[in-house]
Design goal:
- With 252 residues, the chain is an all-alpha fold.
- It contains ten helices and two strands, in the order ααααββαααααα.
- Helix content is 72%, strand content 3%.
- Strand 1 (68-69) and strand 2 (72-76) form a beta hairpin.
- Helix 7 (115-139) packs antiparallel against helix 8.
């Protein structure tokens, strides 16, 4: 080994990038997180392949029909008030609601003096929304015509924009906000709330007949992978002092 190689080898721990040093210090957690992201992305790719080949048609149609009155496909199962609830839930995945919520959270972070966290939230949520729209354009799957729609739709079907938008927004906001609070019960509450809202929005899209079940599954998968990736970035930046640290816990 030459002199310059020996010098480089000795100084490598001092010169290696900070993100690589962080991975080295948190090897096990990083490996688990990256593996989870890779598994979700693999699941999305496999599902998309099945959808393109038409192998999911029977499954999709059976679920959509099971949610309608066999004697009148214009009538979703359940009482009228339940249908209204599902319309209210689906609105939680609409762009106006998601954008408004994101801007409200960003304003809160700005008032709390967490400027870097604010920019991270804005980049994560709006970046995920743009990615979802690009995927819709790429797959260009037709909307279900098997039953009448109970909600107005204007875009392609795969992946579900409401399901992915809800996952991107609620899971990302929950994960990032959980990173800046020191209370474990608040972290758990935020994460459970994000998951619950994401699931309810996706289910409402199938119930209203505007999406195939596989559209929603794909939206959940893509949104969850994006949220986990954003959480990993936030954790790395926080460790490096680029994002505001957790709020200290109040004394008991």
């Amino acid at each position: 080994m030459g002199t310059w190689q020996q010098t480089l080898w000795r100084e490598w721990p001092l010169r290696r990038p900070s993100w690589l040093a962080w991975i080295g210090r948190h090897e096990r957690g990083t490996l688990v997180l990256l593996t989870l992201i890779a598994v979700i992305i693999w699941g999305f790719v496999e599902l998309a392949d099945e959808v393109i080949e038409g192998d999911t048609d029977a499954f999709d149609q059976s679920i959509v029909l099971a949610l309608r009155n066999p004697a009148d496909l214009n009538d979703p199962i359940g009482p009228p008030w339940f249908e209204e609830i599902m319309r209210d839930l689906t609105a939680l995945g609409g762009e106006v609601v998601l954008v408004g919520l994101t801007l409200a959270v960003a304003a809160y972070l700005l008032m709390e003096g967490k400027r870097h966290a604010m920019w991270l939230v804005l980049a994560a949520v709006f970046g995920g929304m743009i990615a979802g729209q690009l995927m819709k354009l790429g797959f260009d799957r037709a909307r279900p015509e098997l039953v009448p729609h109970h909600s107005h739709v204007y875009t392609a079907s795969f992946p579900s924009g409401h399901a992915m938008g809800a996952a991107v927004t609620y899971l990302t906001l929950a994960a990032l906000l959980a990173r800046i609070t020191g209370r474990w019960h608040v972290k758990a509450y935020l994460l459970m709330l994000g998951v619950a809202l994401t699931v309810l929005v996706g289910l409402s899209r199938v119930y209203l007949g505007v999406h195939w079940p596989t559209d929603v599954l794909a939206g959940w998968a893509a949104g969850a992978a994006w949220a986990l990736l954003c959480w990993a970035v936030a954790l790395s930046l926080q460790r490096r002092g680029k994002v505001e640290p957790e709020t200290p816990r109040d004394p008991e």
